[in-house]
Hints:
This protein is mostly helical. The protein has a single domain (2-188, 206-386), classed as Growth Hormone, Chain: A, CATH 1.20.1250. It has helices at 2-34, 39-66, 71-90, 94-124, 135-155, 164-181, 200-204, 208-238, 244-269, 271-291, 295-303, 305-323, 329-359, 361-367, 369-388.
Amino acid sequence: MKRDTRFIRFGLVYFVMFTIFGVATPYLQILVRGLGYDPAQVGFLLGLFEVAGVTGPLLLGGLGDRMPSPRPALAALALVAVAAMIPLLLLPRFAFSALALCLVALGIRTLIPLADASAVTFSDRGTAGRGAAHYGRIRVFGSAGFIAATLTLQALPRFAHASPSSIALAFSLAALAFCLSLIILPVTGKSPRQGEPASRNSARRIDPLFLLGLCIIALGRMAMAPISSFLSLYVAEDLRWNAVGGLWALSACTEMPLMLLSVRIIRRTGPMAAIAISSAALAVRLAVYALVPSPAGVVSGQLLHSLSYGLFQPAAVTFVATRVPPERRVRGMAAFMSLGVGLPTFAGSSLGGLVLKAWGYRVLFASFVLFALASLLLYVLTRRRFSEGHAYSRPSG
Length: 397
């Protein structure tokens, strides 16, 4: 009973944390566009936002592995993001906007690997080191928080066309609420092997399968860039449909069942096969946006978020946890978020802005299908290496 209560407390912190992303994911692109930048500039700035998010996890990953509690770091990161909104609004020049967005990214992009590593460690206790397989049970609270934020903002009249200051205010309120929620965050303690010195082999060698897995993940996340950076603009500007918040809430709703079922799926297929399934779904999702340029097409595409993200995230976290020793877990999550997600999203967003400016939204979505297929092909060609490779800990029920 005591563990169940602490589990709910951990989930509630995730709920509040993802209200921040419930504002940032759908509306940051609209905020940047509202500052007066053209699509190519928006793509570059949002890509820079992603690549700046690489810095925080890589710099703080080692520190996170040594911290007894993630609370101070999580609170400080959220406050940095809030403070950066001030120059973003008051100094709408390209250089200042770029610097401010880098600080916002440094804050919120580092929250996830720190929180995810703590969630896996927390789940490890009493599960003989198998916490990664149960990560989805905590992460689903985050999806609920994301849905609550997006639906709240969707209910506000014409928030899809809100001023940058209104979006920044909503973002800041969510971040401050997250800081307060950290009061109830349970002490995570240490996983069965966390806190032990790194083995000589793990300290000196870089796992080649981990790097190969990151390449497969990176190609898939590059394919995701047009969705994360331009879908809201597509809905608001091209379709002229005031449904941005509702559409992102719909996608978050579809991901929740897959996160709860991810334990069984990953146990049956393995984490990399699950990631390959998400890449295939992402290719179909982008093709639907390109071939059906209408509200019905967008809704259909958002339903595929269940596989292209709802299955992907638990599978990727499980992959990292099984390829990285527990004493390096935060650094492993940081590498995943930075090299597997941040850098490819930067490249995809920057390239996508140029494609959008030259040929429009339909070509943008259609062209990025190639990256999803490349991710799937790379897995197919190397799948035997993952089935035969050694893991530090195998996920199981």
